[in-house]
Amino acid sequence: MSKLAAKSRLRLRVKATAETIVRSGHPWVFADSIRDQNREGQTGELAVIYDRNDKFLAVGLFDADSPIRVRILHTGKPQAIDAEWWQARLSHTIARRAGLFDARTTGYRLIHGESDSWPGLVLDRYDTTLVLKLYTAAWLPRLDEILALIKAQISSERIVLRLSRNLQTLAAKDFQKQDGQILFGAPSESALIFSENGIRFEADVLRGQKTGFFLDQRENRREVETLAAGRRVLNAFSFSGGFSVYAARGGAKSVTDLDISAHALESAKRNFTLNQNLPTVAACHYDTVQADAFDWIQKTTTKYDLIVLDPPSLAKRASEREGAIRAYERLNSLGINLLARDGILVAGSCSAHVSTAEFFDAVRRTAMKSRRKFTEIKSMQHPPDHPAGFKEAEYLKVIYLKFAE
Ligand code: SAH
Fold first, then answer.
1. Which residues of 96-119 are buried (b: 16+ CB within 10 A; e: fewer)?
2. 216: Cβ below 6 Å to ligand 1?
3. Distances (CA, A) of 25 to 29, 44, 273, 381
4. What is the pLDDT of residues 17-64, one digit of tens each?
5. 3-state DSSP call for residue 166?
6. Whose CA is nearest to atom 19 of ligand 1?
7. Assuming Cys at both sites, which of 70, 82, 101, 196 could form a disulfide with 29, CB separation 3.0 to 4.6 Å?
8. To test the ligand 1 pocket, which listed residue (210, 237, 396) has its Cβ within 8 A of the most ligand atoms?
9. Is it the case that residue 405 has pLDDT exceeding 90?
């Protein structure tokens, strides 16, 4: 590993509960569960974890600055983590996506962090551009090697590096790497366009949220398309308007994008315009509202036949869980008030700290309090290119309710 100085192997022992958790396949070892370490560790090096009988338990990436001190790469029998092992791991991850998408979908996730056994690392494809996003500094000293690996197995015109905010200072200082830096290939001369189920979208891969687009909502967008015919649709927290273009293609009478960000709405308008070749999109009445969704939904008197409520995470940490549940109840209650007869509520949450059951129950409870008759149409969780392999990785959940009167 090029930028890591060769030292004796870093060896750790962890507390009994952590041992059980790691053995069960959980990918995180927290700093406070380490009970013994042979020397100071360097971010990015391999840490070998031994059990209480001094037997090999797991090997992972050490991160000296994160409370998640080790992210597990392999558990079970002792294993050399060498070039061949990395190659095989990447081939396996790519193979998991085989057959998921046809030529009409050129934007999807190739590597989804821990749940694909690449802890803290995401790789998205947007047409011929790859976006590599890092959530732990442990990958920074390994970047050249990972890049070579990706280039060898996945063809692309360029690879863009994105860094989660907490890594940006360290990456600039110690590795001369910036968020949005192009690691390989030439910058794109125009906006980056990709397709999703035949709909064209732009993605702001250099600066946009996540890696530039909310690829994780693809299946829900498709579902909304099937429900939208003839309806007046409100897409709250619209971001770049993904749900809206699908609703329009599905025959919505009108679509309104509501977001607090002018920048997001500009992108939403461009995405709507990009698809004017589709007759139903061209025929759909389209407008945007820039406002705080909580305020606006409370004040407006307009009725809608389908409302998508997909807010940003309302609980950034575990202590915010209860407040977030109350906020979901309030938001969905306001949404239900705006629904016309036979209206459909599509209620989403991307808060990992609010469980799927808690969120669905909160929405059902709110629907019951409205005293309107409703049926549950369906609920959805993670799409196959964003698998959730452990509890903390389950962030996405969406429930569909139809109100009869
Ligand atoms: N539904 C989107 C993703 C939502 S991301 C999609 O499928 O692509 C969350 C969006 O909520 C962002 O665009 C952000 O600008 C917006 N937002 C955050 N707080 C808001 C608020 N109080 N009112 C309206 N929009 C808000």
1. ebeeebeeebbbbbbbbbbbbbbb
2. no
3. 11, 21, 46, 21
4. 999 999 999 999 999 999 999 999 999 999 999 999 999 999 999 999
5. helix
6. 260
7. 70
8. 237
9. no
- What is the C-alpha separation between 207 and 180, in angstroms, rounded? 6
- Report which DSSP code applies to 351: -
User: Which two tokens mark 125?
Assistant: 């494809």
Kindly give the number of the ligand 1 atom that is closest to the alpha carbon of 237: 11
289 CB under 6 A from ligand 1?
Answer: no
Tens digits of per-residue pLDDT, 238-263?
999 999 999 999 999 999 999 999 99
Q: How confident is the model at residue 5 (pLDDT cuts 50, 70, 90)?
A: low
Residues 316-335, mean pLDDT to the nearest whole number: 96
Question: In the predicted model, is pLDDT for residue 2 greater than 60?
Answer: no
Domains belonging to the chain, first-starting first, are: 10-75 (2.30.130.10), 83-192 (3.30.750.80), 214-403 (3.40.50.150)
Residue labelled with tokens 């461009």: 270
Q: Which atom of ligand 1 is nearest to the CA of 217?
A: 7
